[in-house]
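ok trying again, last paste got cut off:
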Amino acid sequence: MAKKVLGVLLSVVMTASLVVGCGGSGTESGSTTEAPEAAAEEAAPADDGGSAEAEAPAGDVTIKVAAIETAYGSDMWQEVCDAFTAQTGIQVELTTDKNLEDVIGPSMQGGEYPDVIHLATGREAALTEQFIKGNLIADITDVLSMTVPGEDKKVSDKIAGGFTETSLTNPYGDGKTYLAPMFYSPCGLFYNAGLLEEKGWDLPTTWDEMWELGDKAKEEGIYLFTYPTTGYFDAFFYALMYSVGGADFFDQATNYEEGIWDTPEAQTCFDIVAKLATYTNPITPAQANDQDFTQNQQLVLDNKAIFMPNGTWIVTEMAEAPRADGFKWGMTALPAVEAGGDGYSYTWFEQAWIPAGAEHMDAAKQFVAFLYSDAACEAFAKAGAIQPVLGIADKLEGDNVMFYSIYDNGAKAAMGNFAAFEAIPGVEVRPVFFDPVNSLVSGEMTEEAWIDGIKSASDQMRANLK
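nice, full thing came through this time. structure:
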């Protein structure tokens, strides 16, 4: 066990890299070298038979919280930590950094690690995924039954429906929650609504209409599509699978069912992505990295591309960027496959979790519960980070009203991701499914080669499902 923990940390430290825009997408990831036996005991499932209240920790307890710094900034985290201390008396040592994996990795190798980590899945370093695969994340199902510190409601009474019933929070399919759902964002295709109005172009509702718009735009030197990095194709591809084949196809595909990639639904998904690659601004792959991705986003602001997959954080992230005259943000779900079909918007959300061997488990769980308090939600919302709590949309204003009402305007919600599997050397979801899009755009890879790679990797993933 100790060797496995150290191996995970070494792997993460060697591959850590930054995704600035979203905690993952954009799609779209420490542990401990302390006694593994103790870690396993602390991570054991809670007894459901009694109260789920965590034992009140001593007043002199100090917990370590590590949070990725994204476009929302870090001030909100300090405000929440201060409010938590004022409410509970528990001190918080906060670490935030844009390169969080690099910062906490070395100390974890030495046996020091955070009690609570806010770091989403879908990042290139895949730290969170490695801890999921290593069974190194604590079961926090009991947190859902805890009363929010300073309030009279339970955590489960505040979190919106569905967010604790997805593979993003329950990765093992065992009915237990291991990751707490955090800042959520309806994902979709973002564009300059002012450009469409100026040109008299209708917003496409089907992929056939999308290709027609692409042809019109090309005549005026405007490309149909770009993307920040290939990591943003997670939310895009998940929504596409839902729109093509519905929930059943999505569930089968994300669990690597044998033969699923030979179905007509799968071929439709592949064909759409491959065709979209031919409508993509050709400069995109060269800038689709963690340092230059905002230059691809700038293509939309400069009317050099119409659509890009993204999340609601894009407004804050590009707030100071120059833009074309008359620019105004627009957001739409992925088009339907055919007229009358459903368009889907993937709901992407970040996650917070507790390492299985956290030194202060009870205090850590109180902190996670506090993340859903009114005080925390208000602090986060001021920075544009929206918690998945009931009634939050009623408190929003500006562009967020449009973004968070997308599901009120006909789009259907898609949630979930690829099922966790035991670690396979050289095999990860993003490099298999999404990174090849760069090569599709550049012409260095054929659609058939991409599909063959997915089929081969899926066989291994299916054989190693947790």
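cool. The longest helix spans residues 233-254. Residues 188-347+428-463 form a domain with the D-Maltodextrin-Binding Protein; domain 2 fold (CATH 3.40.190.10).
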